Amino acid sequence: MYRTHNCGQLRLTDAGSSVTLSGWVSISRDFGSLTFVDLRDRYGITQLVFDADARPELRQQVQQLGREYVIRVKGVVRERSNKNPNRETGDIEIEVNELDILNQSKTPPFTIEDNTDGGDDLRMKYRYLDLRRNPVQQNIIFRSRLAIETRKYLADQGFIEVETPFLIKSTPEGARDFVVPSRMNPGTFYALPQSPQTFKQLLMVSGLDKYFQIVKCFRDEDLRADRQPEFTQIDCEMSFITQEEILNTFEGLAKYLFKTIHNIDLGDFPRMTYDEAMTRYGSDKPDLRFGMEFAYLKEAVSGRGFAVFDQAENVIGIVAKDCEDRFSNKDMKELTEWLQRPQIGAKGLVYVKYGKDGIKSTIGKFYSDEDLQRIGEVCGAQQGDMLLILCGETEKTRKQLNELRLEMGRRLGLIKEGAFKPLWVVDFPLLEWDEDTQRFYAMHHPFTAPKQSDIEKMKSSDRAVLGNLRADAYDMVINGVEIGGGSIRIFDKELQATNFSLLGFSPEEAERQFGFLMNAFEYGAPPHGGIAFGFDRLCAVMSGQNNIRDFIAFPKNNQGRDVMIDAPSAIDAGQLKELGIEVKSQS
Ligand code: ASP
Fold first, then answer.
1. Does domain 422-532 have CATH number 3.40.710.10?
2. DSSP 8-state code for residue 306
3. Residues lining ligand 1, judged by CB closer than 6 Å?
4. pLDDT in tens, 72-114
5. Residue nearest to atom 8 of ligand 1 (CA)
6. Which CATH architecture has domain 135-262+541-576?
């Protein structure tokens, strides 16, 4: 037997018991006749004591022990004289009688401790060692719990878990496909699913009624901290369902997960239309952990001879409470430069500080103190506050001010740790105009249903009318992160064809890409809708972290590489030939 207990289990009440433990040597400290070893496994760390006077026969073996050696010990639990209150097993130690070295270890390239000395690259190369570290292990264990609880909730609600294929034809979620060459059909390719979207809709045509799957999706996109080329969704679809019922079902899932895992009652989620979210926060995923809502100032600032404001389509401000004296001129200059970086692209920043010794502003030349006071009243600024104003084209200005709002929230410490602020954003636009390609794209995806009241308007050829069409599409947002999104689907072949044509698909193209779905719709497709959650992101947000990589056992780096297994990598000429692929050498 390798163990009677694990390394996190023994307490003072076990004193006197004979036990067997197995694990990894974390640290070994030699004090002459006494050697202390921290033995580690997934469950914790237990201190072992080797007493050379009592057990001289173990001495030689004990001296061989190195970091990360795998050992088995037999011994007796005893109370520790020098207790460690930071460890659950800190009241006891094991007086060892027998030692087996089960395996040796090379010295690991970084320390296997909560705070390691290993850099990112090294830890990724030796991810299996990184995964021995407690914080990393806890993330993976957390993820597992979340998946298990998700399955429990959905199974209780009558959902069926169905696997859909990975070797498929392109699904349009707006990214590039990863493709897999087919050996048996030279010159042709499968695409890996960007999501199981079309399959889950087909399952509704099949009458499965309530489907879910915790499933890998693949998108060939430029990577950022919260993106991975392969990631996991909790993917769901339901039949004979209204938007209201979907929101309730999945709000229920989120509430259940927070309650069972964090013992937090989330309360009912507020709902906000897309337009409202954009107007109040300049974002379709507003972070509601703090206020600082947008104030529209165009009217209040116009007609005072300040051309920049007079000519701007919109002038929008946010009020930072009680901080006018916290930002020096240098800070303001730095903040302005931060906004002017190409990533944000603001032209400039106007501020008004409502200080105790009077009002200070970058636009004092154009506006009297009374003017500035009045502007302050419009947006609810009081003495001690600072008003930050951006101006320009409405959409751009909102986006820039959203960035500034989030930055101010961070700088002023307004985001309380451990706070969770969920909401639903509803009534997304159906279509999104792209200036570069001069065409509409689906804001969610091409299968999303327009609002009933907007179906007629789909016949319009007016870009403004089409751009204003609204869809039965919704996102769940928590703490400013889009956790999930979905929609009611089109289930009528004609309407689907109209939508494809608005998206610039010729009937032939639509038939070629999605003929299978359109055909299925001819055999009695039920009304249906669904949602998918970004599972990796949900793990990160629920843990109060923002890097999804920390919740993936074997993630890719920012270049999309797995440095541990060295992928992607070249394949040999024979394999390429078999696949009928010619690769030009990269000289
Ligand atoms: N397939 C969609 C996505 O991946 C989710 C959905 O509409 O259910 O975003």
1. no
2. -
3. 173, 195, 197, 485-487, 530-532
4. 999 999 999 999 999 999 999 999 999 999 999 999 999 999 9
5. 531
6. 2-Layer Sandwich (3.30)
